Amino acid sequence: xxxxxxxxxxxxxxxxxxxxxxxxxxxxxxxxxxxxxxxxxxxxxxxxxxxxxxxxxxxxxxxxxxxxxxxxxxxxxxxxxxxxxxxxxxxxxxxxxxxxxxxxxxxxxxxxxxxxxxxxxxxxxxxxxxxxxxxxxxxxxxxxxxxxxxxxxxxxxxxxxxxxxxxxxxxxxxxxxxxxxxxxxxxxxxxxxxxxxxxxxxxxxxxxxxxxxxxxxxxxxxxxxxxxxxxxxxxxxxxxxxxxxxxxxxxxxxxxxxxxxxxxxxxxxxxxxxxxxxxxxxxxxxxxxxxxxxxxxxxxxxxxxxxxxxxxxxxxxxxxxxxxxxxxxxxx
Amino acid sequence: xxxxxxxxxxxxxxxxxxxxxxxxxxxxxxxxxxxxxxxxxxxxxxxxxxxxxxxxxxxxxxxxxxxxxxxxxxxxxxxxxxxxxxxxxxxxxxxxxxxxxxxxxxxxxxxxxxxxxxxxxxxxxxxxxxxxxxxxxxxxxxxxxxxxxxxxxxxxxxxxxxxxxxxxxxxxxxxxxxxxxxxxxxxxxxxxxxxxxxxxxxxxxxxxxxxxxxxxxxxxxxxxxxxxxxxxxxxxxxxxxxxxxxxxxxxxxxxxxxxxxxxxxxxxxxxxxxxxxxxxxxxxxxxxxxxxxxxxxxxxxxxxxxxxxxxxxxxxxxxxxxxxxxxxxxxx
DNA sequence: CTGAAAGCGCTTACAG
DNA sequence: CTGAAAGCGCTTACAG
Lengths: 332, 332
What we know:
2 copies of one chain form a homodimer.
Chain A: H1 5-12, H2 16-24, H3 31-44, H4 50-57, E1 62-68, H5 73-88, E2 92-98, H6 109-112, E3 118-122, H7 128-136, E4 141-144, E5 154-157, H8 159-172, E6 178-181, H9 188-203, E7 213-214, H10 222-231, E8 239-242, H11 245-257, E9 267-269, H12 276-279, E10 286-288, H13 291-308, E11 316-319, E12 322-324
Parallel strand pairs in A: 1-2, 1-3, 3-4, 4-5, 5-11, 6-7, 6-8, 8-9
Antiparallel strand pairs in A: 10-12
Chain A binds a DNA duplex through helix 2 and helix 4.
């Protein structure tokens, strides 16, 4: 069996209450006693059982993260940010990677059973019912890259503003016929980016023809089909704005296969500024998102809600994006 | 307060023992009673408290994952594999992302406190002492992409074989002067790959000059410096074998900056076959690793050890790699 | 098939 | 500053 607090107490010749006190360092303890206890702890190799502790304190010191089951650098930077914030305050990270679209409830079960002190949900489209259930169980929820009403805290990047900035830049190149490759329509980021594109075009008296919107899902390969569809259009678009870099890279491949050149024949731009963007040829003009920051701040906020036991201020944070001009837009 | 098993028992007019029985579905329970209990559970919205349950069963149904703090697709595919295996058996995943090199013990604490039933350590170079401690606490450990003696189960890809295959291919192109950009020397994969390179060269009566080994650390940007160092050499290498695709991509950028062409002036090959490899120009010849499989199998093994309470068979698994020929080696 | 009781390993008022 | 006792929410022999 493993070493318990009773073993330590016995060895140190004190009660378990005293052991608990020196372990948690909260109440005052005679320095001599404390030393004896510490010696017992060390010699026995004792470690507090986190489960027992959590059961009585009602704090597991674990934070739950729900994230779509995609493998891209964009999401992983968020995870890194979350992980850093979480471990900085000595908490652990429990991850549930949820397949988009499957809507099964099972995945959330660990979170409904008192396992985590707070939950961070990334672009995951939780149902209202699920959110309500979590709320009933009194576990704070923070949304990342999505929003859902006023009452649930959220951290997003300025998808709209970034899209506007990018579109303005493309317009300055003189492009007129825009095409858009959309992301998964389950998440709101793609819609926001599209809205930015539309509004900026409208500002110059242009409109986006619906036929020039090709559906994608953010994932590898989906930009491929979308671009093929766009290349069947007549006239061809001047410039393609893909909802993320991955799809933009796919589009580039297709355009090259068709014997056309980027940016001379068709310009391209993406969104996210993942590492891939700077490695392809021509390097991709895109919008940088502070993903690590996003995850870090969201996690800090979640932890704060737990600590303060009240909502955070401000409830809704929008992090600025930054236009990254490379060659695929026609610059240089 | 939250709904407990007592509330359910009261509502259903039975004892908590009975409620527990229907919840866990193990012992025989009168169908009528079971229905009453289930109705109470549903109407109260009751969920078992996972902490309390874990405390008595001595199973938390959580699996711990230790992974270096890098953000690359290679590692994340492993995570995805682990996550799938873990959630397939209704367990949760607790992640600790460990900075290489910092050697602080703190990160392992959650794992030493009874929080997880098993641990999977990815290329992380746990110290012997840490492994021993974990063993003392009776939590099974499975190593991924590393080995440490006979007694600890491990899952690795065939780094040596893959490197041999790749080298043979490059030799068939007629290259003679090889250079190697190494990975972090904390992990054994890079050493294995280097060994494969060396042995294959030796098979053709060639040797690798130490000056042609440039140190890298697998991370973004480190191939950059390494390649600069190699380009200062006289004579220049015919071909550069980078220990992973990321560094190979960096090397490509540097070679282009120097006004040289790949593969005409210097050929390049990588390792891993991450998505990036197929997007750069020229597309990268590399060695595919079954990373998802690796994580999946490792997690299954860990879960099996927990379930069977005995070591698995076989203890050491080597998954085959596959040569992926693209253009950077000179093919086409 | 079901209930009363002990126990998992801790923390935390409450006394002293 | 310290200890005895209750309790966190479950499971599981043990009786019946």
